[in-house]
Amino acid sequence: MNQADKKQQTKEKILEAALEFIKKEGFEAVTIRKIADLSATNISLVNYYFGSKENLLSEAIEVILNGFQHTFSILDNTAIPPQDRLKQFLFDYLQVIRQYPELLSRIIAMGSTPFTSQQEYGRFLSIMGFPKVQGTIKELTGEEQPERLLAMMLQLFGAIFLPALMSPILESGAVAKVPSIEEQLNLFFERYFDQK
């Protein structure tokens, strides 16, 4: 293995450790020291490869967001009925969110200094993601007005993602059993896209 391969392998090892830590402990608990320990490296190496905690988090978020992007491809498969495509997209999207529960709240509350990867993902959504979702909603409803399609998409995301954000609070603090994602999706589609 040459020097460049070793460097890349070390950087990937640190990034994988950060992803695993984020999955278990969340973004706020990340420190350079914890990631160095988990990756069996040292603080100097983490700083060498990433420069700062913010850069490390930005790259970790980019990896996570790339996982979201593949979920949009189901919306291109016109052999599947539009309602089934949209349901599958939402289910797959929520599966990624379940792996990183803090991510959705972090994206929603980007704050005044969003990570570069979040900005890139926002561009992806506006260029490719949202038009695919809106196109599928258009197929389902026949709606033509762009403003109404946007409103419908936002309602859809709100109805599906808010429960995902609130589930930990409701299940622990309020001791309420939150229906499964499948149940939530089925109920939503029965109410919103009833094909009578």
Summarize the structure in short:
The protein is mainly α. The protein contains nine helices and no strands. Helix 1 packs across helix 2, helix 5 packs antiparallel against helix 9 (181-192) and helix 8 packs antiparallel against helix 9.
Structure description:
The protein has 196 residues and is an all-alpha fold. It has nine helices and no strands. Helix 5 (82-99) runs antiparallel to helix 7. The N and C termini lie far apart (63 Å). The model has no long low-confidence stretch (mean pLDDT 84).
**Mind describing the biggest β-sheet?**
none
How many β strands by DSSP? 0
| Helix proportion | over 70%
Secondary-structure class? mainly alpha
Radius of gyration: 19 Å
Keywords, separated by commas or semicolons:
mainly alpha; 196 residues; 9 helices
Q: What's the arrangement of secondary structure elements?
A:
Elements (H helix, E strand, L loop, with lengths): L2 H23 L6 H7 L4 H8 L2 H19 L10 H18 L1 H8 L7 H26 L4 H27 L8 H12 L4
Helix pairs in contact: 1-2, 1-4, 2-3, 4-5, 4-7, 5-7, 5-9, 7-8, 8-9
